[in-house]
Amino acid sequence: MDSTQTTAAPEVTRSLSAAWPGFAARLAKALAQLEEDQFLVIDLKHGSRYVQFAAQGAHGMRAETVSNGYLDKGERLDAGVERALVAAGWQAPTGSPGSSTPQADPDGSPNFFADFPAPVDVQAIADLAVRTLAVIFMVPHPGYLQYDAGEIRGPSLELPDLGLKRLHKDPAAASGPDPEQQLLATLKDMTGLPDLAYDRDGDIALSHGSVRGYVRLSGPLPHVRIFAFLVAAVAGSPELLARINEINAALGYLHLFWRNEAVVAITEVAAEPLVAAHVVWAVNEFFQIANGIDSLLQAEFGGTVSLPSVTAGATRH
């Protein structure tokens, strides 16, 4: 088995490459260059494990490393690796990629994560990242890594002093269209609404019937996420959770969960490549199903739906 893919519990008994301390220093320098809303992702050239960093200005910096929510069966972390990550200083994931969305779980993450307040101790972050990569994930040498950096829906960022190969040095040379612009164009064509745009949270808001939903690109492995708060101000109860489980078992395609006094619906579509016909089908199917479920749950458990005044017709902005 390739040593970069092992999931065995890490043992700090092997020799580490002499290249790691220098890489930690270069990584700290790169993190210090990140400005608000800029990100840096470091991942394996051959594998799906990664560490990533998001600069948040006066709020400090968020660091994350991959959880099983984003790993295929062959690369999943076993319990020993997960314990080692927590012992190293990461917080455990607070939910799945479907449940720990920024809207439903703003202070959590579906990944292992750590928040560093301003002024940011970039060396501490770099040391945590290197321990994760070299000791816990057992990456033999920094040369096994690559990076991507930039600003969400903004320009890319070159970090040559990091000493790693860039995933896409020239965004214009990357194969295929920009997926965010492709998603937006797809939804404009579908709805006939030329003024559709991403909001500050990176979502495209759409409404149909009594449901106001949101579409976004998400995840280090791009996918289109469609979600909506179906019923708000509804108290949790064993009866409600049992009803949600019953509905989930019947749906398969769309998943419901209860969090923060709201029932949320979510589904995802692969975005690499982004196929317009798949997105259109998923969005239409999502709103058709959600419009029946929200009124059903409201009738049974109370609360309020997204748009009490139902307007029939095409999905709208």
> Order of helices and strands, N to C?
HEEEHEHEEHEEEHEEHEE
Return residue spans where pLDDT drops below 50 for at least 5 consecutive residues: 1-12, 169-175, 309-314
- Strand percent estimate: 15-25%
Structural class: alpha+beta
Rg, Å, rounded: 21 Å
Mean pLDDT: 85
Fraction of residues in helices? 25-40%
- How many angstroms separate the termini? 50 Å
Instruction: Describe the main β-sheet briefly.
Output: 7 strands, antiparallel
Q: How does the overall form come out from the CA principal axes?
A: globular
Number of strands: 13
Discrete helix count: 6
Please outline the helices and strands.
Layout: H1 19-33, E1 38-44, E2 50-55, E3 61-65, H2 79-88, E4 112-116, H3 122-136, E5 145-151, E6 165-166, H4 179-191, E7 204-209, E8 211-218, E9 223-232, H5 238-251, E10 255-259, E11 262-270, H6 276-301, E12 304-305, E13 311-316
Parallel strand pairs: 5-6
Antiparallel strand pairs: 1-2, 1-5, 2-3, 3-4, 7-8, 7-13, 8-9, 9-11, 9-12, 10-11
Helix pairs in contact: 1-3, 2-3
In short:
The chain is α+β, with helices and mostly antiparallel strands. It is built from six helices and 13 strands.
